[in-house]
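User: Sequence in, structure out. Go.
Assistant: Echoing your sequence, followed by the structure tokens.
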Amino acid sequence: MSDIFNKVKSVFGDLATDKRVANRQELFMLPRYVVEYLSSYFIERYGEDKYSQKLSEFISKFYHEARERDKVLSDLMQLGKITIIDEVKVETDVKLGTYRAHLQRLNLRDCMIDLNVVEKHENLLIVGMWGLVDLTYAPESVPIDKQGRPLMTPVLITGFTPFQCSVTDVRLFQEARDFFTFEEWLDVLMNTIGLNHERYSLRQKLVFLTRLIPLVEGNVNLMEFGPKETGKTYLYRNVSYYTRIFSGGNVSPAVLFYNIARRSLGELAIKDAVIFDEITRVRFTNPSEMIGKLADYMESGHFERGPRRDVSTCSLIFMGNIKVEAGEEGYTPVEEFTYVLPDDMRKHDPAKIISRVHGLIPGWILPKISMTTLHLSRGYGIASDYFCEVMHKIRMLNYQHIIDQEVELIGDYKIRDERAVKKIATGLLKLLIPNGSFNRSELKAIMNIAVEYRNRINDWLHILSPGEFPKKKLEYKIK
């Protein structure tokens, strides 16, 4: 085992997991953090030799595909009780004074749930949780209206065992940074998200990790363009359960902002980050309303729809695949960025959205992920569920004062430029130097990325509208 993996085990203890266990193809239907949690549990209980077989038997027994829905429900009615693996999200019903549970994989809504389960696992009310769910068929317990019609599904959740880490102390993450050099910490984070650090250059590691900025810093708007198979969607789907991915298709104001008919908040209000994957194929219902509200939200963090006004810290990521050509130093884009945007954006003043994007990630410099043995992690990293919670909680911490104290911005900075550079730099600080103890070269590496990403946005705006956006170059110096 390499020195870095031994060091991770030594520093993080039980919060270090062998990332190789999550690379098994037969378990890819489950989120990575779930696989890691279960693998660690079964290794501890059965040992290295027997855990694999025991875990496979466990998954086979309790996990059911969506097409098995009717068979599962039939078993529940006949047997009265069953246990399954599913993702549970709970909503509070103020009118009835109770809770409604939704089984996401089983696609079963408005289930009843034992109050003790809700009180014990509050995260069910926030983002939902994966776990082992005990179900009881209880038609006699269903509340009814004045006409005698059932108000909920006759399924009662009586027990829940979460597949997530219970430790969420950010200080452990911050203090652990003291034991690693800057380069070692990059390797720790790369393995934590499931990648083999040996396959990436220092520059590629920094660029790859900037994808995590929207998960640790609120109200950051980033775009990334690059070839397929560089791990864009894979990362956001597996590194955090506080994200929502729209992979093309129609996106409505009701889904994103506020559903007037149901009086329910959209994804922007409840997630840490919303990702528009395959941005070229995204279509907005009522584009004029959608683009206007989206631009306003990206600028201020506020949104308004119908009777609802609200504010959110949710970050936005726009990802698109572009044509590239291979050269001596890797891939370079051969397609103008504007044509990667969906028609709805290009028709409604694209500069309005682009100017509110804080930075553009050069995804074209990242290698494609190929064989498991080459590009996926070959050793230990931080447990994914703990890392997810750390990123979620560290969003509430303020690191911008470090940038204000240590850095002077030089050039024709507008308010959006200043905000963008500081947002990106602050996010990288939280990820790469969470303990706040850095040297000049480390801060310079962070600022180089922040200024580069914003300069790339300004270059794009100049191409779109040279008169409105003159050519300029943002710079900085360490005080």
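User: And one key feature?
Assistant: The first strand starts at residue 16 and ends at 18.
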